[in-house]
Amino acid sequence: MNERRFAPIDSIAVPRFAGPATFMRLPVIEDPALVDIAIFGVPWDGGTTNRPGPRHGPRQVRDMSGMIRRVHGVSKRSPYDLCKVADLGDAPTNPIDLHRSLESIAAFADRIVKAGAVPLAIGGDHLSSLALLRAAARSGPVGMIHFDAHQDMADSYFGGLKYTHGTPFRRAIEEGLLDPRRVVQIGIRGSIYSTDDEQWTASQGIRVIPIEEADALGPDGVAAEARRVAGSGPTYLSFDIDSVDPAFAPGTGTPEVAGLLPREVNAILRGLKDVDLVAADVVEVSPPFDAGGGTALLAANIAFEILCLLAECVALRRAAGR
Amino acid sequence: MNERRFAPIDSIAVPRFAGPATFMRLPVIEDPALVDIAIFGVPWDGGTTNRPGPRHGPRQVRDMSGMIRRVHGVSKRSPYDLCKVADLGDAPTNPIDLHRSLESIAAFADRIVKAGAVPLAIGGDHLSSLALLRAAARSGPVGMIHFDAHQDMADSYFGGLKYTHGTPFRRAIEEGLLDPRRVVQIGIRGSIYSTDDEQWTASQGIRVIPIEEADALGPDGVAAEARRVAGSGPTYLSFDIDSVDPAFAPGTGTPEVAGLLPREVNAILRGLKDVDLVAADVVEVSPPFDAGGGTALLAANIAFEILCLLAECVALRRAAGR
Amino acid sequence: MNERRFAPIDSIAVPRFAGPATFMRLPVIEDPALVDIAIFGVPWDGGTTNRPGPRHGPRQVRDMSGMIRRVHGVSKRSPYDLCKVADLGDAPTNPIDLHRSLESIAAFADRIVKAGAVPLAIGGDHLSSLALLRAAARSGPVGMIHFDAHQDMADSYFGGLKYTHGTPFRRAIEEGLLDPRRVVQIGIRGSIYSTDDEQWTASQGIRVIPIEEADALGPDGVAAEARRVAGSGPTYLSFDIDSVDPAFAPGTGTPEVAGLLPREVNAILRGLKDVDLVAADVVEVSPPFDAGGGTALLAANIAFEILCLLAECVALRRAAGR
Amino acid sequence: MNERRFAPIDSIAVPRFAGPATFMRLPVIEDPALVDIAIFGVPWDGGTTNRPGPRHGPRQVRDMSGMIRRVHGVSKRSPYDLCKVADLGDAPTNPIDLHRSLESIAAFADRIVKAGAVPLAIGGDHLSSLALLRAAARSGPVGMIHFDAHQDMADSYFGGLKYTHGTPFRRAIEEGLLDPRRVVQIGIRGSIYSTDDEQWTASQGIRVIPIEEADALGPDGVAAEARRVAGSGPTYLSFDIDSVDPAFAPGTGTPEVAGLLPREVNAILRGLKDVDLVAADVVEVSPPFDAGGGTALLAANIAFEILCLLAECVALRRAAGR
Amino acid sequence: MNERRFAPIDSIAVPRFAGPATFMRLPVIEDPALVDIAIFGVPWDGGTTNRPGPRHGPRQVRDMSGMIRRVHGVSKRSPYDLCKVADLGDAPTNPIDLHRSLESIAAFADRIVKAGAVPLAIGGDHLSSLALLRAAARSGPVGMIHFDAHQDMADSYFGGLKYTHGTPFRRAIEEGLLDPRRVVQIGIRGSIYSTDDEQWTASQGIRVIPIEEADALGPDGVAAEARRVAGSGPTYLSFDIDSVDPAFAPGTGTPEVAGLLPREVNAILRGLKDVDLVAADVVEVSPPFDAGGGTALLAANIAFEILCLLAECVALRRAAGR
Amino acid sequence: MNERRFAPIDSIAVPRFAGPATFMRLPVIEDPALVDIAIFGVPWDGGTTNRPGPRHGPRQVRDMSGMIRRVHGVSKRSPYDLCKVADLGDAPTNPIDLHRSLESIAAFADRIVKAGAVPLAIGGDHLSSLALLRAAARSGPVGMIHFDAHQDMADSYFGGLKYTHGTPFRRAIEEGLLDPRRVVQIGIRGSIYSTDDEQWTASQGIRVIPIEEADALGPDGVAAEARRVAGSGPTYLSFDIDSVDPAFAPGTGTPEVAGLLPREVNAILRGLKDVDLVAADVVEVSPPFDAGGGTALLAANIAFEILCLLAECVALRRAAGR
């Protein structure tokens, strides 16, 4: 098989602004069985309760991801040397029908998981993660490392609606997709409706690291705590771009001031090396609120950091014969 | 009764940028029985199939409507001298639940109609108009003067979905809310999916004036034709801001180049004086795509032109003892 | 009395983008005697020597303040449970007449103070603070905790003009409104015209914490020093948004690079709990230079932090029978 | 004398983006006695009653005027071949003191007029024109060709203030600077506070061409009527950029939809060849509301059209020995 | 062969914002022998003398072209029913090496022409057209219908440089690629460096229709004149987006005010039905100056109009057995 | 000689927005022999491999530099009291011809160095630095303190091109302009093409401080290390604005997330007091990607910090009789 097929176009040969935009300048491949890691978009914001726009996220992240080169600057390793990666296109979504979308996203991700590939989804709003978890947890509940300004653990919105981008992880726990004692939430902050959600979360045994504690622990401390909570079991990584301070990531629907700094994000992510990641997402990038594209650029960089983590996991599992 | 209560704040006394923003700087009134014309917002884009954002429309139009003064520059008449007008707030909407929103918008408008007031809605996407027509046509089918780049007469989207911002008027005809022989569509243009919708529309007897014919007729000719089609019966006026060229109205979800010019819009609207308007809307203003606010400013001006038309109708009907 | 009347609209019931925008989604109330804390706008930039725009500040902060929920995320307390808060509208201002504006702002604030309510003003340029201090210091000179990139202690501008947004606190000291030994300035930085203003400030006994010292002290150290300087007497809190780094707050007239970070601001403000605050302002938000609205969002969050401080002060004073 | 000194930098030799920006890439000259036409800025918006910003107008017009080449595309003549033109810098202004600014602007313009040069001012808000007229009319009342969306003939604002950007020409008539029977206003439109100003204007014998009449007359008809009204006496040309439709000129404080199109403006201006122009201005360009710079680019082009008219007048008067 | 392969993704089934962006949502095909019309990008601005950016044009036009549906709104015909169309990717370019880029663009286009397909290039700056003409004119000089604000007929820039975006057509004539008597230039306007280029152009027998004449002729008159000049021989169509007024197309490097309106452009293009078009381009779209994407949307619409013309030509030639 | 001639216009007398924009509001002087420090622009981006725009950098930095006052806020010293500084205009550049530009920039800088003045260049892309080094190193190789996200040490791009903004310092070392053992690179980060450039750099003995190490060392540690590496010999300071995090400096062509913070930059620069600086640049400011002007404002502040360093060096050398 031709490994070159799964390498990005070389920006030192072909300028970055040339050609149709794909994730990381990778080829578009339809069959997940051909790849180890499947990057795909979830162009959907059907669960958004406030400012819309994440339906446009995948396309803008594709555009800005052309800025990423093939080798990680600190590890000096390239994910493309470790495994086969491609752009699988977008999951089918429907801007009008919430439940049909949840199902079609889950089915798309499920096909990837069944084919033995690791899904890396680019959202889309955070309700997407519920659909993705349905695929990622098909063999049993998973742990989760969750970067976010919000817990997304509400019970319902607007008079009883159970499925919004503020409720995915409560549903995931109810559906048995997540093991709450292996869930850690990083960067939580901002004003809240009430303390009800926090109390429910605490009752489930979830570990919350609010921004104030993250500041005190430092990135290494946060990463250590995340590793401790996630343990050695299969773990999902969900990255809501609003975990980052809105000066760095204005293009999102529910910005909360005083968030994580990108240097902290990099340090925390790089500290997750030993976690057994089985799937991941980067969500809530909203291009209509991101005039300069800086949020998408940051999201593309975070996706690359996560891709490097996933590639190491794939290599490790392969080495372990799993 | 204190007529002053229903007048805008005077911008020659209090600067236009002062105070909370309401439509036309009018007071916020809850009870529709107190007014003749009820301006209200429909902060909703649940029917949007492409770029979202009209849920933010009412607020931005409120902001820019502070630029409008109290007297019409050509007629030298003020709607506030003819009748009582207020900002009735926003219809209840739900960004997650399409059908509940359609019902709550219709109920809100119905309360206005039942109270004897004329509704002037600021959208919101075009599916809102279906809800509004359910209230406006409670005494029987109405005619419609419809400004738009698109016919919005599709049967369904995305595998059979019947309720989107591309289908409202097909539904309205099916529900018996519109008399198709008294419907005229102005400014239609752009590429199309197929000729099916046009054929259905033609079969209903609807009069379509594409932009090319509007150009040839001139604004006076268009207005004359619109008056002829609408006739003397009760008529709804629906103004989709994307009827206007996107250089003048970029802030909308489905822009089509080569549209109506604002001077033409003004001339056509002013030519509708004798039509018996019973309700109206201005829809599809999408602030996330309207950085400078120019679309909202134009929408506010168009809303004022329509308000002047409605006020004359109210005065005429009052004079006629209706 | 109906306490509910002074609560924000619940964003989990009514979407945040719905309805006319008021501060924190609070009701608009005219009579200050009905509230404990009166939030109001000062739509004015008559003292601005460089880039204008703060006249539009109150409206944009109203818009973005809809993002704030009712309970503080760290204290888990809500100001609305402690006391009655409302949007009092805007102080009367005049974009053409500086002195008449100073008088009308002072009179508006005075009416609030006389009614026993605590003023929380959203500016407006920094000259507004002089007018506000005239009301706040009606019973004698007050201390001040002042966040700013600039000292605003100049004697005059442009050939002897004594009243600009660069001079308010020199005037306030001359008028006996401030006790200079109880004044602390936080975040001062950037190039200066000369060392004259610094020397005058030092001669008055004012404590200045430039950004470099703030960096060295850390937020807790800054807060401790501010508490020490302010002491137990009545204290005014003035927050110029340009104290924050312009990456987080570009929408201001005189940005100075290398400023405070929002996480530092939050930590310092939360460290001011024991100060006896009697009035406060958040000023210099300039929407024309704030395309994405991020500055107004930050200002709304800072206003909420301050509101929480003020509410605790009101509760304490009430408990103490003052 | 070295005529080359008064020619723009050649953009076919030195790229347009190079060097400090001056009007039309002309040299900056201090002494008006050295030039025939003095272009200068009036960085001031002290008379602005609504959205501020024209104080930044001259600088942005300087920047965009680098796009203009030396020869007129239709007449094939260059103003720089007809007379000496330079950038005289900016009139002294004061953002805090309205009356001192009016005086210093008038004095600056007066020095130019006394030196025998023709002033071409780039504003600044429209109150600047009052100061400029005081210089231009030093030998007696002048006629005026006035492009604007608004008449700017109000008596007062905000409780009796006589000097705002809505009142300059009422003051100019009262001061005997304008001969009202030789004044024509082109492009007037939009909602109005009342009909009082129109009635006063009519009583003075001023000729108003609202946008609707301009549309009917066509550009040639408008130009003919302007020439007829202005007659053969000395005439001032005042161009408020808000006379143009806001799609073409969004960067202004009081935009009115449905305005003049640039092609119409060019045709009208080119039709004014025989008018004896003695001074001119282009005002109300507000860069904070003009993100892309399109308004300043249009203003620079209009200034060039006017410069060509003035150069022909200078040449004619020189030929006539005046 | 599966004709469906060359149809756009159906936006009524898959939302327009989904999937990697390609021209008109067409498949990306490498082999030109498989298609009748090859749309491709030229991501290059190496010839730009002023504001850069067209190197980013193809990608943004791909993004916005997702808004175009499959059937023309006036003719009711679809180019995809007439012939096979695909996105051929981008021509190889080099942002540092002008001459190597000219060669690689020409070679890329030549491969298309040799394969029997019709090239439709999306630029890129106007120097690209020289490379494209080298391919299009391989069987002999062609005629040209050229929309532009500028003649692009200069001899040299910056001290003798012969290859810039201001010189392509002078070079093309010198190289024998164009038959100057069959060249028409539409929309020329704005200030000029000198009259030299015009004189040279006139001496070649080129027909120039400045904007003022276009206004007088009307779109039908312009189209008739273009047809007359082009005659029945093979003809190239070059569309510089700056021919359009900058209110409609701000995203370009050398905007000239007072240009063509999109409705005029549509009418002129639709009037070119009988011209034997053999290749075409749409150039000078500069995304860095096109914040809202409106210029790219317009360019995509114009590309679709041209695609429809080309498809009719292909069908005609096929019917004629050519 | 009149020292006042070389002082900025006083912003407390003349508003900052008044007059043509020059660097720091300094006079424009042609003869470098009249000044001690020559600030000039390099409006050029001929070496840019990705997003263009730095050709517009000097003009926007001139505009924003009007915000800088004359005295440094921490040292309380003014560079204008130490030596004569002026705006020398722009180096001649050519957007089409790379090598001619390199030569003309070098010649311009050489004239300054020969006249005994210190060059402070405002770019322009980073290839400019190669030209500047040719002048600065005319008496022998110099050391360099280099702030950047990228090493700019590549051998070639796009098939062997040796001169791009990614290669200047490799060329400078090859040309003997830099002493690699006296070169330190600060802020390096982000993904890389391969490890080849790093290996070459290491083989030359260059000291690299990646962002992760800069974070660990702290600003004082970084400054100490930079001083150690640079030693006591003549040293060049090159500041690529992309060394700073893109939230603070979005206006650049190759943004890399997670960069230096402005407070760190200030602290590092202020720690370089004892280095013998002989020339400096601030490069890669790209206005088309800097909507709000914040990048240019930051660049102007950094240029002022560097100017203060250079002025102290000039004073020291003068005191030492050098």
Describe this structure in words.
6 copies of one chain form a homohexamer. The first copy, chain A, has 322 residues and is an alpha/beta fold. Chain A has one domain: Ureohydrolase domain (Arginase, Chain A). Chain A is built from 9 helices and 8 strands. The first copy, chain A, has an 8-stranded parallel β-sheet, with helices on both faces. In chain A, helix 8 runs parallel beside helix 9. Chain A is globular. The interface between B and E is medium-sized, with 30 and 32 residues.
Shape of chain A: globular
Termini separation of chain A: 21 Å
The helix-strand sequence of chain A is EHHEHEHEHEHEHEHEH
Quote the average pLDDT of chain A.
Answer: 96
The CATH class of chain A: Alpha Beta
Unreliable stretches of chain A, pLDDT < 50, 5 or more residues? none
Assign the structural class of chain A, choosing from mainly alpha, mainly beta, alpha/beta, alpha+beta, or little secondary structure: alpha/beta
Estimate nothing, just give the exact number of structural domains of chain A. 1
Number of helical segments with 4 or more residues of chain A? 9
Our Rg estimate of chain A from Cα atoms comes to 18 Å
Q: Say what oligomer this is.
A: homohexamer
Biggest interface goes to:
A-C, 30 and 32 residues
For the record, the CATH architecture of chain A stands as 3-Layer(aba) Sandwich
Strand content of chain A: 15-25%
Q: Helix coverage percent of residues of chain A? A: 25-40%
CATH superfamily of chain A: Ureohydrolase domain
